[in-house]
Amino acid sequence: MSKECHNNEKIQSELMGLYQMKSGSIYSSMIISALLLAISGTSLVYAQQTSNSFIEPETAALTTFANSVAAAAPKIIAAAVLLTIGLVAGKVTARVVEKAAKKIMQKANLQNISESHLIEETVGKFDSAHLIASTVKWFVYLFFIVAAINALQLAQLTSALTSLWLWIPNVLAFVLIVIIGSVIANYIIKWVNHELVIHHYGGMRYIGVGVKAVIY
User: Fold this and answer.
1) DSSP string, 130-185
2) Number of alpha helices (DSSP H) and beta strands (DSSP E) in the chain
3) Does the pLDDT value for residue 124 go beyond 50?
4) Where are the domains positioned within the chain?
5) 93, exposed or middle or buried, with CB in 10 Å at 0-12, 13-18, 19+?
6) What pLDDT is attached to residue 85?
7) How does the average pLDDT of the chain come out, rounded?
8) How many other β-carbons are positioned within 10 Å of the β-carbon of residue 131?
9) Cα–Cα distance between 63 and 69 in angstroms, integer?
């Protein structure tokens, strides 16, 4: 009887040992699982923070760029419209001016300004009507270019182009003075040649060239 009790106690102690070992392994597994979960959670939080640190500045930059483009879009459209109108207006104005200038110069027999060898050597022959038309065309072009840049609110560039635009009338005035001077010179030379023929003076060609050189 005592022997059976002893065996029962031994079996119970072994079962208790097994139970304690199993419980210890379960607790160990739970602790390891908790540690793994904590580590993975920390890693996820760090990864999310890292990704946010890269994504947020890029998103902010793209948002700022989109807002800038949206704000500048009306100005860009207005500038494009002004440039298109200026291109058409400049070409149409140049054609009208060139046709009118050619008619006037044909009546005055001044299609080419260069009438003497001296002037030809200096500036060569050129179409004065085309020169006037080109000057007027660029005057119109620059007017609309200045307006377009002003629409974009580029103050320094607008100021520089305005100065250039205001200088073009000086070029046009120079061309007109040369043409008017050529008309006057032609009439004076014709009168001088007529007087030389009437009075039978020799060397009319050289005298005519000298008169042209003085007048020009």
Assistant:
1) HHHHHHHHHHHHHHHHHHHHHHTT-HHHHHHHHHHHHHHHHHHHHHHHHHHHHHHH
2) 5, 0
3) no
4) 73-215
5) middle
6) 94
7) 69
8) 18
9) 10
